[in-house]
Specification:
170 residues; alpha+beta; 2 domains; four-stranded antiparallel beta sheet; 5 helices; elongated; transmembrane helix; membrane
Length: 170
C-alpha cells in the first residue's frame, strides 16, 4: 500500500505549467490568426473588441499562478468560444462570397447566351437560400451591380462589372 499523496487535491488535478502554456499558446495563437477576418465579418469596431478578448484570454495564463486548473478551463472555454465564433463568421462570409461569384457567373452566362442581362435573379437557383435576402441585384446602363452584406447593412460589399469587388467602409 502506498502512502497518501501529501499534495492538496487541487494541485493533483491541475495541469502542468508546460501544458497550460502550450494550451494558452495554441488557443490564443489560433484566435489571433483569425482576427484579420473579423474586419470583413463584423467590422472595425468588433475587430477591436475581438483583439481585446484575445488579449484577455492570453492574460488568463496569469490566473495559473493562483489556480492552474481554473486557468486551463477558462482558456479553453473562452478562447475556444472565440475561435468557434470567428470560424463560423468566416464560413458564412465564404458562403456569401461563393454565392455572389456564382451570381456573377450566372448573369454573365445569360448575357452571353441571350445577349442581355436578366431583369432579376428569379431564374438563378441560390446555393444558400438563407443568404438570398442579403444580396441585391441591379444593372444600370448595361452594367452589373451586386450589393451584399453579412451581418450588418452598414458593413457592405459590392461587385460592379467595371471596378470589381469592393467593401464599405474602406
Amino acid at each position: 500500500m502506498q502512502p497518501p499523496d501529501p499534495r492538496p487535491r487541487e494541485e493533483k488535478a491541475a495541469p502542468s505549467w508546460p501544458l497550460l502554456i502550450a494550451l494558452s499558446a495554441v488557443i490564443t495563437g489560433t484566435a489571433a490568426l483569425m482576427e484579420y477576418n473579423t474586419v470583413y465579418t463584423q467590422g472595425e469596431v468588433m475587430q477591436l473588441f475581438y483583439r481585446v478578448a484575445v488579449a484577455g484570454v492570453s492574460a488568463l495564463l496569469l490566473m495559473g499562478l493562483a489556480n492552474r486548473a481554473m486557468a486551463a478551463w477558462l482558456t479553453l472555454l473562452c478562447g475556444g468560444s472565440l475561435i468557434l465564433w470567428q470560424a463560423n463568421q468566416s464560413r458564412r462570409w465564404a458562403m456569401l462570397h461563393e454565392e455572389v461569384t456564382a451570381i456573377v457567373a450566372h448573369v454573365n452566362a445569360m448575357k452571353s447566351t441571350k445577349g442581355q442581362m436578366p431583369p432579376d435573379l428569379s431564374a438563378y437557383n441560390f446555393r444558400h437560400p438563407e443568404l438570398q435576402k442579403q444580396i441585391s441585384y441591379s444593372f444600370n446602363k448595361g452594367k452589373l451591380f451586386l450589393s451584399y452584406y453579412l451581418n450588418d447593412r452598414g458593413i457592405s460589399y459590392w461587385y460592379h462589372e467595371d471596378s470589381g469587388f469592393g467593401y464599405y467602409p474602406d
